[in-house]
Specification:
Length: 480
């Protein structure tokens, strides 16, 4: 009987990426194993009385949930909480693992973690979601799996500011005397100790990373493309938080042309470009991108084809494994920008690399979210908004400087220039600037490893992450 080769799980795919990078790191097997494994896996089942959305009847449901801390080389551990009915232990382990590498690559001093609750959040009313979130948080507190210096969750697929506010409120109720309690979770609403610029952060980071990749003329030439993101034809798969901000910022700040957007209920296409601002509004008002007027529509059954369209850049921005062994050969994009976590499986990547596709990997490209989470956590620990101390002081210094120049030259500086130059930085300006700096540096560093070792960009990103985590373990004196 011939043995049927089973397809890889998400976690196995991530392990494959690790093993591909390992020989390039120069680290010993024992240390590599310590870096690779998940340090702590917490699987929980708890009952919650849920309301049936259609009938309104109450029933008790046993909820399956997880929190995985992949690496304790730095603390706290950090990573989002996902609500989806695809959640399982393998998936959460894979996502927690990616978080460790992601944090290392953008120099965010956290270990990686991830949480998941196996529910379809759109099937429940707000009251039920609140009950589930509070109970899940309580379970984490009980086992010491959450806290500003232990493990700090954040939003992920199916969760957002609202859930983070519930988590914070549950935590501080149980830990009344903890001064830094607000740092137990990030991605909170701004009026609940959140930070300006966190909601858009992953999408904005995707834009900065993509723009940086497109600015390397030599790399673009290999793909038969002109340097620069402006004018590039972009396809977006998934129009949630990450997809919509990536699209909007790429269009408004990068002059990219968004030719297609796909979601679970179909995709829309317009070669001349879709107005992303308008599309966001249509989705918010009607619940579906399919109600956007100025584009061709393709139904639910054909939604997978959005990935196979002719374009310069494909941005998968929803869930994992959408580009796999079945469709990899049909992908025509020259650049795949992984805004989602794990959208390309490792066997699919081999096919794409042979075709010469440039894949900008998730562990780097979607790190904007956790980077700004880091800023939020710092803000929570410092108990002060960024810019509060020095904004006016700096603005005054610049005004004085202009006055001095005007006095010395006898000429008046143009008002528009003065107002731009004099304005001190607000919190959101500082957040964006810190994010841009992190994304640009990390890209260039990863690209240098790629060139030096003649490997692909994902392997280079893994090499970088593994070496950085390895250095931490070595400096603890456990490994030689
Ligand atoms: N869930 C996001 C991610 O996968 C953000 C994690 C965080 O901010 O901690 O990167």
């Amino acid at each position: 009987m011939s043995k049927v080769k089973k397809t890889l799980t998400f976690y196995e795919s991530v392990e494959n990426y690790f093993e591909k990078a390992a020989p390039h790191t120069g680290l010993e097997r024992g240390l590599l194993d310590q870096i690779r494994v998940c340090n702590a896996v917490y699987a929980i089942r708890f009952p919650v009385e849920v309301r049936d959305k259609k009938t309104g009847a109450l029933r008790v449901q046993v909820i399956e949930a997880y929190r995985v801390q992949h690496s304790h080389h730095r603390l706290p551990t950090k990573g989002g909480i996902r609500y989806s009915n695809h959640v399982n232990q393998d998936e959460v382990m894979a996502l927690a693992t990616l978080m460790s590498y992601k944090c290392a690559i953008v120099h965010v001093p956290f270990g990686g973690a991830k949480g998941g609750v196996r529910i379809n959040p759109w099937d429940y009313d707000e009251e039920t979601l609140e009950k589930i979130t509070r109970r899940y948080t309580y379970e984490l507190v009980r086992r010491n799996f959450i806290g500003p210096s232990i493990d700090v969750p954040a939003p992920d697929y199916g969760t957002g500011q609202r859930e983070m506010a519930w988590i914070y409120d549950t935590y501080r109720t149980l830990r009344e005397n903890e001064l830094d309690a607000a740092g137990c979770v990030t991605g909170k609403p701004v009026n609940q100790f959140g930070i300006r610029g966190r909601t858009e952060a992953t999408g904005r980071g995707v834009f900065y990373g993509l723009r940086q990749a497109c600015d390397h003329a030599e790399d673009m030439k290999k793909l038969g493309l002109e340097p620069g993101i402006a004018g590039k034809k972009v396809v977006i798969q998934g129009f949630g938080n990450v997809g919509s901000y990536s699209a909007q910022i790429a269009q408004e700040e990068g002059d990219a042309v968004i030719i297609a957007v796909g979601e679970a209920d179909g995709y829309i296409y317009n070669e001349k470009g879709i107005n992303v601002q308008k599309l966001i509004q249509v989705k918010a008002e009607t619940g579906s991108i399919m109600n956007y007027a100025d584009a061709k529509k393709f139904p639910k059954e054909e939604r997978g084809h959005v990935l196979e369209l002719e374009c310069d850049i494909l941005i998968p921005a929803a869930l994992e494994e959408v580009i796999n062994i079945n469709n990899a050969k049909n992908i025509k994009a020259k650049i795949i920008a992984e805004a989602a976590n794990g959208p390309v499986t490792s066997p699919a990547e081999e096919i794409l690399l042979k075709k010469g596709t440039l894949i900008i990997p998730d562990v780097y490209l979607n790190a904007g979210g956790v980077t700004v989470s880091y800023f939020e956590w710092l803000k929570n620990l410092s108990h002060m908004r960024f810019g509060r101390m020095d904004k006016r002081y700096r603005a005054q210094g610049r005004e004085d400087m202009i006055a001095l120049i005007e006095q010395m030259t006898g000429r008046k500086a143009p008002v528009e220039i003065v107002s731009k130059f004099v304005k001190g930085a607000d919190e959101v300006d500082l957040v964006r600037s810190g994010l841009e700096e992190s994304m640009i540096n990390a890209y260039n560093f990863t690209r240098n490893i790629q060139k030096e070792k003649n490997i692909d960009l994902r392997t280079a990103a893994f090499v970088n992450a593994i070496q950085l985590i390895g250095q931490d373990y070595q400096s603890m004196g456990i490994f030689p």
